Amino acid sequence: MGTLPKLHFLLLISTVLFFSMPQLKPVVAQKLYANSRWIVDGDGRRVKLACVNWPAHLQPLLAEGLSKLPADTIARKIREMGFNCVRLTWPLELPINETLASFTVTQSFQNLGLLESLAGIKSNNPSLINLPVMEAYKSVLTSLRNNQVMVILDNHITTPGWCCSEKDGNGFFGDAYFNPQVWMQGLHKMATMATGFSNVIGMSLRNELRGPRQNVDAWYKYMQQGAETVHAANPDVLVILSGFNFDTDLSFLQNRPVNLSFTKKLVFEMHWYGFTEKKAWQSGNPNDVCKAVSNKVMNQSVFLLGQGYPLFVSEFGADERGTNVNDNRYMNCFMAMAAEFDWDFALWTLQGSYYLREGVVGVEEFYGLFNNDWSGIRNSSYLRRLSVLQLPFQGPGGRQTVAHKVIFHPLTGLCILRRTRPTRLVLGPCIYSEPWSHTPQNALGLMAGKPLYLRAVGLGRPATLGTSPTEPGTKWEMISASEMHLSSMAEDGSTVCLDVIANNTVMVEACKCLSSESSCDPASQWFRLVDRTPL
Ligand SMILES: *[C@@H]1O[C@H](CO)[C@@H](O)[C@H](O)[C@H]1NC(C)=O
Ligand SMILES: *[C@@H]1O[C@H](CO)[C@@H](O)[C@H](O)[C@H]1NC(C)=O
Ligand SMILES: *[C@@H]1O[C@H](CO)[C@@H](O)[C@H](O)[C@H]1NC(C)=O
Ligand SMILES: *[C@@H]1O[C@H](CO)[C@@H](O)[C@H](O)[C@H]1NC(C)=O
Ligand SMILES: *[C@@H]1O[C@H](CO)[C@@H](O)[C@H](O)[C@H]1NC(C)=O
């Protein structure tokens, strides 16, 4: 070893680290289980689902983007972007309507007049054009399997098309297009089909329940039957259940558990967008709104983690142009909670554009990772920021490491790191964070070696490290309604907050936007202490 040039040594180390990350292991032949709130592999090690949504439930009945890129290329790029999983949607009619299922891809696109897309499919995915649409769906599963991408099959809607509205007849059991018996036939067929695909690790039984028919008794009756149907056809998959009001509300589970004949396979899913709260984010003070919405989300769904169920946040995301204030503020709050609770997730969304959406050809998707023509990534800083969530912070099965904190900055998706010579505190990837501890005296210390404590010397100065937790400026409180401003009393007697400036240096500044103002955005001063037990 000693004779190897340094560079080779580093490469070797990084290769070993790379392959020892659990979620980057090949996963295609694996069954997953629910073990308390964690999704784990057969050895009991956590597998964090870092998924992206890939719709195949719209009228053309084909996963989006295949007119722009080969399916294998899309699957490979999903891995390259750091995701290990796809939530692949399907409309109920795909397995149950024989007329529709008999269409080839060519017929399906011709029927809709999508000749330009068809030409694109012919050049990018020539093997698909004469396949029946169900075979094309399976071919996408094969491409994902070949690239070691896990899949969750999501029954998104009944009638192929854009989802969802209160009045589309697809919202709840008993609606015009939502017959529970037909739904169970479809689940049975898809679950049976999935036995041929070891990478299909879960099934999301129905997307975004909604509308006037919603009621708790029908939910238990049909969701339990649906779960049993899937499990009987395919006992390998996780069974994923969604809640009321567009999958935002699972609070009814607080006092009535689901009763199933099988164990270790049950997962719940929820959706959380900026627009879930209409325009609340931009019309209120972000500290206040974040507090109120976090409490609500806690009550409606996140409590399930505490009850010992995995929670799959199967839709969230933001307009990547950065100009939607409501989305931007929501995302800062979302990132804090997503890191803290370390839930499994599926980003909305992969596609840069649609073949056809709501009657319009080639609609651009500003929440999509790909750009409009799928030639590249829409916003690489957005992806970089989200990438912190792709790796687990916590979970069973790793080496035994003492639990500690990292100091997470939701706005950037980075953590506070120490740089030496000269000593500075900067933001950088959380995986490089040294272990911080939060002492009973409210100091934030780096305890490896000679202890050092986060310290505020004075306004407008970089944050620094002190050697004693009794020095001025080393006691830190989480203030404001959001409890995300890290505040201290500096040596000069002023109350200060940590902040971050353009070059990612951690600074000591006046606390900003603590309450009431709605025009002011505090996010550069938001930090959250996140528990970490590295795998
Ligand atoms: C099946 O699909 C065809 C073609 O889209 C459609 O005309 C028909 O109404 C569908 N049948 C049912 C029962 O949904
Ligand atoms: C759970 O379901 C089983 C089988 O249907 C039934 O026998 C049992 O009474 C149910 N338990 C509860 C608490 O509802
Ligand atoms: C959350 O639930 C608790 C206890 O049930 C209740 O006191 C609180 O008001 C709820 N908060 C929200 C925002 O719904
Ligand atoms: C990417 O997102 C950032 C942050 O939201 C924004 O400032 C930037 O303008 C976006 N870039 C593009 C190309 O949309
Ligand atoms: C970043 O800004 C701080 C404060 O102005 C300064 O002390 C530091 O040298 C800067 N760092 C770099 C790398 O430019």
How would you portray this structure in words?
With 535 residues, the chain is of the alpha/beta class. It has 14 helices and 25 strands. An eight-stranded parallel β-barrel has the order 3-4-5-6-7-8-9-10, surrounded by four helices. Strands 19-24-23-22-21 form a five-stranded antiparallel sheet, with no helix packed on it. α2 (71-80) runs parallel beside α7 (133-146) and α12 (286-306) packs parallel to α13 (325-341). It is globular and about 75 Å long. The two termini are 26 Å apart. Belongs to the glycosyl hydrolase 5 (cellulase A) family. One of its GO terms (molecular function) is hydrolase activity, acting on glycosyl bonds. InterPro entries: GH, Glyco_hydro_5.
Task: Label this structure with key terms.
535 residues, alpha/beta, TIM Barrel, Trefoil (Acidic Fibroblast Growth Factor, subunit A), 2 domains, five-stranded antiparallel beta sheet, 14 helices, 25 strands, 21% strand, disordered N terminus, binds 2-acetamido-2-deoxy-beta-D-glucopyranose, hydrolase, signal, glycosidase
